[in-house]
Design goal:
The structure is a homodimer of 161-residue chains. The first copy, chain A, has 161 residues and is α+β, with helices and mostly antiparallel strands. Helix content of chain A is 45%, strand content 17%. The first copy, chain A, contains six helices and five strands; from the N terminus they run ααααββββαβα. In chain A, strand 3 and strand 4 form a beta hairpin. In chain A, helix 2 packs across helix 4 and helix 3 crosses helix 4. Strand 5 of chain A pairs antiparallel with strand 5 of chain B. Chain A binds a DNA duplex (30 and 30 nucleotides) through helix 4.
DNA sequence: GCCGCCTACGTTATAAAATAACATCATGCC
DNA sequence: GGCATGATGTTATTTTATAACGTAGGCGGC
C-alpha cells in the first residue's frame, strides 16, 4: 500500500484540499452543480483513506450543521458524487471513498486492508483486460466491473508479521 | 452466459439435486453437519441461477414450514453454507447463490446479468493471476478477492440488441 | 445407557443501510 | 418578475443484518 494512505506519514489536509480543487474544476467543466452540501459531503468522505459509511458521514454532517440531517440528504449527495466519479462505493463494505483520479477512466478496483481499514484504488489495466477477455469469450457484455480485494497492506504486515 | 443458466432450456431440478448430493458428500467428508435446516436453505438458494436475498429465502422457508421463521435462522444457515463453500455471497447485491463447484479452489468471480438477474461463477485463473501480480507489486497480501462484473448475458443481448 | 459438553436452533429485540412520497426552496433563464 | 428545473427538507417505511439470551438435540466418554 502506498505511503500516502498511511495517515501518520503524509499531509492529509493536502489530499482533501486537492480533492476539492479537482472536484470544483471537473464540475465547472461539466456544468454540474457541486453545491455547498455536496462539497461538504465530499470533504467528509475524504476524512481519511478508509471507506466511510453513509451514516458516519451523516453524523459528521449533523454535528457541523448543529442540527440532525436526514439520511436522504447524505445519500442524495453521495449519489451525485458517485455519478460524477468523484467518489466510489465499496460494495463489500457498504461504504464510500474518495476517488484518487477523478476524470480518468475508472474500472473500480480496490485493495482493502482488513487490519487498518485503508482502501487503495488500483485502476490496473491488466485486471481489466483479464475481465474483458473472459467476458468476450463468453459473449458477456461488460457494463460495470467491481473488484474489491480484501487482505493486508504492507504497513499492517510489518506490524504483526 | 452458458445455456445452463437459462431456466427455459435446462433441467433445473437436476442442478438442485446435484448440488444437494455434492453438499452431502462434502460435509460427510469434512465431518461438517449439514442439518435438515441447512440443507433446506441450500435447496432454496438453488431455486434459480439468480442470486437470492436472505429475506426471500426466509419467506420460502416460512411457507414450507407453515410458520414464520426468524431472520437469524436463515442467516445462520447461510453463514454455515458460505463457510463450507457451498454458497457464495454477492456483495454488490446483498444476495446469495449456490456454488457451481464446491470443493474446488474459489476466488469468487461472477458475471451478473442486469437484465435477467442470472449470475454465473467464473473461477478464471487469469483474473486471479492479474490480481495476485498487482498485489505482489504493491506488497499487499491477498486474503479474499471479490470480482463481480455487471453487464448483459448473451441471451439478454439477443432479446434487446 | 447415561451424563455432560458442544453445537445448533428458537425467540425477541434492535441496529444499520437504503429508499419512497411529497413539500418546499433556490437558481438560472427568458 | 415569472417560470421551469433541479436541489433540499421532512416524515415514514423498507430492506438487510446482528445482539443477547435461552432451549434442545446429537455425540463422545465412561
Amino acid at each position: 500500500m502506498p505511503a500516502a494512505t498511511n495517515p501518520t506519514n503524509h499531509d492529509h489536509a493536502h489530499c482533501i484540499a486537492d480533492a476539492l480543487t479537482r472536484a470544483d474544476a471537473l464540475c465547472a467543466e461539466r456544468g454540474a452543480r457541486l453545491t455547498a452540501l455536496r462539497r461538504q459531503v465530499l470533504e467528509l468522505v475524504w476524512t481519511s483513506h478508509r471507506p466511510r459509511g453513509a451514516y458516519a458521514i451523516l453524523e459528521d454532517l449533523s454535528q457541523r450543521e448543529g442540527k440532525s440531517a436526514a439520511p436522504l440528504t447524505v445519500y442524495r449527495a453521495l449519489e451525485f458524487l458517485v455519478e460524477q466519479g468523484l467518489v466510489h462505493r465499496l460494495e463489500s463494505l457498504n461504504a464510500y471513498i474518495g476517488c484518487a483520479a477523478p476524470g480518468a477512466v475508472h474500472s473500480g478496483q480496490f485493495l482493502v486492508c482488513e487490519a487498518c481499514g485503508n482502501a487503495v484504488e488500483i485502476d490496473d489495466p491488466r485486471i481489466r483486460a483479464a475481465i474483458d477477455t473472459i467476458a468476450a469469450e463468453r459473449g458477456f457484455q461488460v457494463d460495470r466491473p467491481t473488484v474489491e480485494v480484501r487482505g493486508r497492506c504492507t504497513d499492517c504486515q510489518e506490524k504483526t508479521p
